[in-house]
């Protein structure tokens, strides 16, 4: 079929979808995304000095009653998107959702956010400032943005102005590319950087259904969990986070490896690590998958097949990563900057939560130094990670599904026990879990958890974990989200349109 006939057909199908009952969540979420984009002008992660708003006579949107109004608009938008997501979740539970519904809905929800200011995070300003460092001949792994004064620096959170870049050379190259095109213009830089995240979302949309079908799971449910999830749409895309690239590359790598393209898979994992190091957690499990594929093709023993897969993976990874590093003209200094996350203190990790509880309860009886306790709990957390990872790698080695479970568990362990975490970190394990946790109880739990994480953080990037009122509100929303899907009706038989095609164990 020619392009001239295909395009109108696709447009007609999309229009029919928008007018149908099936498309109501898409339109509701679209309205919510518009409100987020509008409210974000005043209540989002705005610039310190915003001449754009001043030229539009909208500066009042950021202060006083204007800030209240913009906050109401933004939170109403978040509420509408959550309601729309839960409505789609009911279709996941009753097994009437289709891949097309999920993909078309993604387009509706994403479109307004492409024009939004960053929301729920100020990281994009740090990205731009770090890219400008490399553009201007400085090493972002040796110096922080404060060493390169410009208009970009004005918008970087003070805590990160002296911190060196903790991201891989591939992402630093992307940030450099953006600042070379737009210079020090923050608005243009934010928009272009968000567009650079789109390939990650496209790869995730491509890979998640394939991974799900490979293990016999529902592809539409996988898209609901890891693509339409507000943590992805609002945080990763609306907040402009490089996790979008990392997660997309990682899932594409897993899908290609499952489909017997391990060389391409390992290459993409190397690129994912060159964005953010966390993706490397998946590589040891992909070696198991490649080993089994080698044994199916050759009369090799397990040890020989494992040695070949390990050696080949190591060579491919090293070559790809080295090429990217040389292209960026940097070294490996970013690995030492990973410790910068210790500056973050919130309840999203177990070590910090335990330290807070010890401080609160122990303080009733004696003087307790919070940071002294935090240092101890963080050391214990690192020890748990160090012990857990090799054990999980060895335990989950027998099948492709086990490999997927192993990746999900190591991601979860790392997120829960690292010194500090942020909401979008939970998209790492969610991407993997999307093919594994699709029962009604699992879907309801994911809905409740995602809602809590979404609501507990504020649009300007701060959080409400030390406000009992905010915690109670977020918990109430989470319970409501869980209940709405835990008690949703479930069909006994899955319609043909929603069944994953070509499922294989």
UniProtKB/TrEMBL annotation:
It is a multi-pass membrane protein. One of its GO terms (cellular component) is membrane. The keyword Glycosyltransferase applies. It comes from Mycolicibacterium mucogenicum (Mycobacterium mucogenicum). This is Alpha-(1->6)-mannopyranosyltransferase A. Its main location: membrane. It comes from the Bacteria. Pfam families: MptA_B_family (PF26314). GO terms for molecular function: glycosyltransferase activity. Belongs to the MptA/B family. Keywords: Glycosyltransferase, Membrane, Transferase, Transmembrane, Transmembrane helix. It is found in: Membrane. The chain crosses the membrane at residues 26-43, 63-88, 100-120, 191-208, 220-238, 268-291, 311-335, 347-373, 379-396, 403-426, 432-455, 467-485. The lineage of its organism: Bacteria, Bacillati, Actinomycetota, Actinomycetes, Mycobacteriales. InterPro entries: MptA-like (IPR017822), MptA/B-like (IPR049829). NCBIfam families: crt_membr (TIGR03459), MptB (NF038066).
């Amino acid at each position: 079929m020619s392009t001239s006939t295909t395009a109108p057909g696709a447009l007609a199908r999309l229009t029919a979808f928008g007018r149908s009952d099936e498309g109501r969540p898409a339109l509701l979420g679209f309205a919510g995304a518009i409100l987020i984009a509008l409210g974000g002008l005043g209540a989002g992660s705005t610039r310190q000095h915003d001449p754009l708003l001043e030229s539009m006579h909208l500066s009042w949107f950021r202060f006083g009653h204007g800030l209240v109004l913009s906050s109401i608009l933004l939170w109403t938008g978040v509420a509408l998107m959550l309601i729309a997501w839960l409505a789609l979740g009911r279709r996941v539970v009753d097994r009437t959702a289709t891949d097309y519904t999920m993909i078309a809905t993604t387009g509706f929800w994403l479109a307004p956010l492409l024009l939004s200011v960053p929301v729920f995070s100020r990281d994009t300003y740090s990205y731009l400032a770090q890219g400008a460092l490399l553009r201007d001949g400085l090493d972002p792994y040796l110096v922080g943005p404060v060493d390169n004064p410009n208009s970009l620096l004005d918008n970087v959170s003070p805590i990160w102005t002296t911190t060196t870049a903790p991201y891989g050379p591939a992402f630093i190259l992307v940030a450099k590319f953006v600042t070379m095109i737009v210079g020090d213009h923050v608005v243009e830089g934010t928009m272009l950087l968000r567009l650079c995240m789109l390939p990650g979302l496209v790869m995730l949309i491509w890979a998640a259904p394939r991974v799900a079908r490979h293990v016999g799971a529902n592809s539409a449910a996988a898209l609901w969990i890891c693509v339409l999830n507000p943590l992805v749409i609002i945080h990763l895309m609306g907040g402009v986070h490089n996790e979008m690239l990392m997660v997309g590359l990682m899932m594409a790598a897993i899908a290609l490896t499952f489909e017997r393209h391990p060389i391409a898979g390992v290459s993409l994992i190397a690129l994912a690590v060159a964005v953010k190091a966390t993706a490397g957690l998946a590589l040891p499990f992909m070696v198991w998958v490649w080993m089994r594929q080698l044994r199916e093709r050759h009369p090799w023993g397990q040890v020989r097949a494992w040695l070949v897969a390990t050696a080949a993976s190591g060579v491919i990874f090293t070559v790809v990563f080295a090429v990217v590093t040389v292209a960026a003209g940097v070294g490996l200094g970013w690995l030492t900057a990973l410790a910068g996350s210790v500056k973050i203190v919130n309840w999203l990790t177990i070590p910090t939560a335990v330290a807070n509880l010890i401080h609160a309860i122990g303080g009733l009886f004696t003087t307790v130094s919070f940071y002294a306790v935090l240092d101890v709990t963080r050391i214990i957390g690192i020890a748990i990670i160090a012990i857990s990872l090799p054990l999980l790698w060895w335990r989950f080695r027998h099948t492709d599904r086990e490999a997927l479970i192993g990746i999900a568990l190591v991601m979860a362990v790392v997120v829960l026990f690292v010194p500090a975490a942020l909401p979008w970190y939970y998209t790492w394990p969610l991407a993997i879990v999307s093919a594994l946790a699709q029962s009604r109880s699992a879907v309801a739990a994911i809905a409740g958890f995602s809602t809590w994480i979404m609501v507990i953080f504020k649009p300007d990037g701060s959080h409400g974990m030390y406000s009992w009122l905010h915690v109670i509100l977020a918990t109430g929303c989470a319970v409501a989200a869980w209940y709405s899907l835990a008690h949703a009706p479930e069909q006994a038989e899955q319609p043909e349109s929603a069944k994953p095609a070509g499922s294989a164990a």
